[in-house]
């Protein structure tokens, strides 16, 4: 079989410079040389689409995903997700493969050792401050939450996530509205996964902002998905509206200071060495400046990050994947951010499998030496 790599289909007007479709490699039997090609392709294109992978078992999906980080092993959010976490309702673990989650929408009678499962595709109305009015939900939607797959406490963000589309309701499209003071919209297939590139985001910053991003770090809240569980999102999914709804310390579960995550704002690609601005705005608590000063005024921090990140989600920079059953998408979770999109009807059943593992190392910062990675 000949190995082929071609850019993903981009709509006219798109300025997306990442994403490729790879064919000619059997991911279940590939040699180390073939895996090397796959890994290079992933880190050069950030999002890789492999078609017709329906027969991939959860075990094989786990093995493939782990090959990018052989020392990893625990699911990205740990062994179990706290019931108070906003993620709790969205994830169903495959019984024999705890690193693999079944996600999607609708009632599933039987799947991979699970029975009578009600899947729930997160609907933005549960998280956004100003959701789309109910009577417009059929046609319009919002980006749910731009994120990096990560617990952002105790565990490091997975290097790579794999997503397999098992069952996909087809035919409908929706208009994703930004509702952020601009009239920006993006036409998307129902239930798309949308991506933007942290490399492109970094590239379009001013020189002054690049310096700030290169030299500053962000500190994430302890147990961030519990901390922000009462807060509401901006309508474009890029961070939280500051209303003081984050849980006060006395309502938070206990935490260990040593497990709080502080990461550089710019993460280096291990193959191309390019820098990506990778900041998960929803979970940010503080900013550490180069001179040692720590910024902890949450509304101000959020405004500052929003000004930097908002240009990166302009419609021309978004790749909304049009899922086909059997698609396996692998993405560089240290180089792109992504969002769930869309609202399904109750009779629309969608089944996906997601696999990722907490990384064996933190993200590579702009000044880290790659030879030690
Ligand atoms: Fe995700």
From TrEMBL:
<feature type="domain" description="TauD/TfdA-like">
    <location>
        <begin position="17"/>
        <end position="354"/>
    </location>
</feature>
<keyword id="KW-0408">Iron</keyword>
<dbReference type="InterPro" id="IPR042098">
    <property type="entry name" value="TauD-like_sf"/>
</dbReference>
<protein>
    <submittedName>
        <fullName>Taurine catabolism dioxygenase TauD/TfdA</fullName>
    </submittedName>
</protein>
<keyword id="KW-0479">Metal-binding</keyword>
<dbReference type="InterPro" id="IPR051178">
    <property type="entry name" value="TfdA_dioxygenase"/>
</dbReference>
<dbReference type="GO" id="GO:0051213">
    <property type="term" value="F:dioxygenase activity"/>
</dbReference>
<keyword id="KW-0223">Dioxygenase</keyword>
<dbReference type="GO" id="GO:0046872">
    <property type="term" value="F:metal ion binding"/>
</dbReference>
<comment type="similarity">
    <text>Belongs to the TfdA dioxygenase family.</text>
</comment>
<dbReference type="InterPro" id="IPR003819">
    <property type="entry name" value="TauD/TfdA-like"/>
</dbReference>
<keyword id="KW-0560">Oxidoreductase</keyword>
<dbReference type="Pfam" id="PF02668">
    <property type="entry name" value="TauD"/>
</dbReference>
